[in-house]
Write a structure and sequence with these properties.
The complex is a heterodimer of chains A (185) and B (180).
Chain A (H helix, E strand, L loop, with lengths): L5 H10 L1 H4 L1 H39 L7 H12 L2 E8 L10 H14 L2 E14 L4 E14 L2 E16 L2 E10 L2 E2 L4
Parallel strand pairs in A: 1-5
Antiparallel strand pairs in A: 2-3, 3-4, 4-5
Chain B lengths: L19 H7 L3 H22 E5 L14 E5 L2 H4 L7 E5 L6 E8 L4 E5 L2 E4 L2 E3 L15 E2 L4 E5 L13 E4 L3 E5 L2
Antiparallel strand pairs in B: 1-2, 2-11, 3-4, 3-11, 4-9, 5-6, 5-8, 6-7, 9-10
Classes of the chains: A alpha+beta (185), B alpha+beta (180).
């Protein structure tokens, strides 16, 4: 807008006083900074948990050509995501309830048998309780294993309970929830 | 063009020429077109997010009714008005509605259901299933359905039932009915 006189300039200033006033401007910048920092702080745990889950999924996967040493290392890494007394109910993939040690053994056996193992997390829902240091996560995962001429795929819904210990997130409970329950035998 | 008076309209040579392509693409009033586009986009988002969910079929458990790779739509409003009925194909949600099971309802709350050598029995009566082409020899124990429990299975019965995702599902998991 062009100014053609002193009077008109004053009028313009009065109309936009809220936007041009220094205090308001600095106030808005400060408010935006506070909101950004708050969102970053709140989101930090969410990002960390999601990153941990992606790392875990990467550990579970097996690509063609991976040897026994890699399998052995991964079987140790997998339990590193769990608390010492984690409760694992991963039926029907694993026996009714397994300990960390049993999980490591079963993981090693399965990884040794299959040629490739693909583990895809399709969608996830996460609720973080920051004061309590816990988080509940639900996600659907599709696992596809291939060995020889066989190719088997399973889809499951997982519920994980994460707890924060020593500034890091660990899985305290892991459970497979069956949306469709097979007939009781 | 004919004017209301019946005489032919003579364009004003002084009037600015309007690009026909521009008019076709963004209309005579771009601001109005923008608003209309926004409303249409919001409407599409709401409808395809909450009412008619696109379903991309993966797997062979519903063959031959639904082929692997097929595309369909699920109506999520229908079961807000009534309960699922036997024979209807429904989508069953998992962690979210982005990944769902596609199954057929075979029995409703209160029913006792089982398979005997591939034949379906509900409350002791044999049920004909014309949609099952790839039949099997399923034999399952009787299952008495509780309140809000439905029995679902796929149409492809060629694999052993232990390998097939079938059984009891809670009403709250049934997200909608397949349209066609």
């Amino acid at each position: 807008m062009a100014y053609h006189g002193r009077g008109e300039q004053v009028t313009h200033r009065r109309e936009n006083i809220i936007l041009t006033h220094k205090v308001w401007r600095y106030g808005l910048v400060a408010l935006a900074a506070i909101v950004a920092v708050t969102i970053y702080q709140m989101d930090r745990d969410t990002r960390r948990i999601n990153k941990r889950l992606n790392q875990l999924a990467g550990t579970v996967e097996k690509t063609a050509g991976e040897g026994h040493l890699s399998t052995l290392a991964k079987s140790q890494q997998v339990v590193g995501y769990l608390t010492p007394d984690a409760v694992l109910r991963l039926h029907p993939v694993l026996p009714q309830q397994v300990t960390r040690r049993e999980l490591s053994t079963v993981f090693y056996q399965v990884h040794s048998r299959v040629e490739t193992l693909d583990f895809r997390i399709r969608d996830r829902r996460l609720e973080v309780d920051r004061p309590a240091g816990t988080a509940n996560m639900r996600f659907t995962a599709i696992g596809t294993a291939r060995w020889g001429a066989r190719n088997e795929s399973q889809i499951h819904e997982f519920h994980l309970r994460w707890v924060k210990q020593d500034r890091e997130w660990y899985i305290d409970q892991a459970e497979i929830v069956q949306a469709i329950r097979p007939p009781r035998r | 063009m004919v004017s209301p008076m019946g005489a032919h309209h003579i364009p004003d040579p002084a009037a600015p020429r309007v690009n026909a392509w521009r008019v076709l693409l963004i209309g005579r009033r771009p601001a109005h077109t923008l608003v209309r586009t926004g409303i249409l986009a919001a409407l599409c988002f709401l409808v395809f997010r909450f009412v008619l969910i696109p379903v991309f079929v993966r797997g062979e458990s519903m063959e031959p009714t639904f082929r692997d790779g097929g595309l369909n739509m699920a109506n999520t409003l229908v079961y807000r008005l009534r309960d699922p009925l036997p024979g209807e194909v429904v989508v069953i949600e998992m962690a979210t509605r982005r990944t769902m099971y596609l199954k057929r309802v075979l029995a409703t709350p209160g029913d006792t259901v089982y398979f005997q050598q591939g034949a379906l029995f509900v409350n002791g009566m044999r049920i004909e299933e014309p949609y099952v082409i790839q039949g099997g020899r399923w034999t399952t124990p009787p299952e008495q359905l509780g309140v809000d429990e439905y029995f679902v299975a796929g149409d492809n019965r060629s694999t052993p039932w232990e390998w097939h995702t079938m059984g009891v599902v809670n009403r709250s998991r049934i997200a909608g009915r397949i349209l066609f």
